Amino acid sequence: MSPTVSRAVRSAAAVESPGVMRVRRGLFWTMAGALALTGVWGAGVTGFIYFRDDLSARLIARQIEAQYAYEERIAALKSHVDRLASRQMLDQDSVEARVNELMSRQAQLETRGAMVAMLAQAAGVEGGATQARKTMPESAPFAKAPTPAPAAPPTALSFAPVAPRPLPVFDEPLRGSAGLRAAPAAKETSEPLKQRVSSLGQSLAAMEQQQAGALDRIMTRSTGKVQRLRSVFSEAGLDPDRVARTPTGAGGVGGPLVPITEADAATFDSALVRARSIVETERRLTKATKSLPLRYPLGHPADVTSPFGARNDPFTRGYAMHTGADFRAESGAPVRATGAGVVTKADYSGGYGNMVEVDHGNGLATRYAHMSAILVSEGQHVDAGAIVGRVGSTGRSTGSHLHYETRVTGDATDPMRFLKLGGRYRDLL
Hints:
Layout: H1 3-15, H2 18-123, H3 128-132, H4 178-235, H5 240-244, H6 268-289, E1 304-306, E2 309-312, E3 319-322, E4 325-328, E5 334-336, E6 341-348, E7 354-361, E8 364-371, E9 373-374, E10 381-382, E11 387-390, E12 401-408, E13 411-413, H7 415-424
Antiparallel strand pairs: 1-4, 2-3, 4-12, 5-11, 6-7, 6-10, 7-8, 8-12, 9-11, 12-13
Helix pairs in contact: 2-4, 2-6, 4-6
């Protein structure tokens, strides 16, 4: 305030009364306050104008920073979804490969089961064929996990240092965003499928064990029977290996040579080959035993009136060799072949009278003499137990009986040795 105005104010204050002086002071302070507020407002407006651009830049920078943080999070979620999708595809491929493997294994086991059943039938193992033909476990067809329906994007969280702002809008939906919500559903769908695949694998493993057990039982039974059959031929004076050998020209076989290594020795296929060999040996020996003269010529045990060996001849009363055994029998009783073979003689033959000779192979032959009737002809094949004639007393005989001989490579042998052998191994005949 200028000196002139100050002096005028003091002069006016001195003239006025004390009450009027107080009113003018209040107006003064009011004016002074208004002037102060006006100054502060002016300073604020000046500061706002000065700092406005800097504040806007900071706000924009923070907005951009929040957007970048959100986009980084979205990118991380995309990567996570891609990993889940890749893992799901790998699991699916793994299950498909496992199913294909089990289907191939099931087909192999079905083939093996048929072979074991045929082998069990050939070996005569009761229950083996039935067990080997058990129905294979049904393989469930592979069902792919259903494609999940698109789901809403996950609710975004605030990753920016400022308050949450409207999310940026994308023209295309996030690729694989449905996988976040669909992953649990796909897992729930794949778990039962994996359990079914696992159950199928266990069923096939159990079936494989059953087949191996059936094959082992076949081998055990056939091995035991082969040993007993070999004993029969050995005690009969025959070579069982020669008897069981495959005859030349009895069916063609062949193929490339594929040796089995030691590592394959314990496999099912090698065990099947060994079992087939044992069963085939059993079959050949069993067939050969039908040709051995091990059965009674009268079909049942009978009294021996004159054994094999040296004796007093019933006509000359001199010491002579009896080349067979005489069995007591009524005239007309049936005379049966003691083994399968081919009739080489069927006619009257001197002291034998009506005589039939049967060639059993392997150097074995039998003779049936003094018969009243011959019921077979030369060249005829007869089975074991077939009737070849009737008991009589033709030829050099003193009465009704059967003269029975067994010859090995043309030499007369005690027939009782073979008949006793047949009695011990009656269950094999």
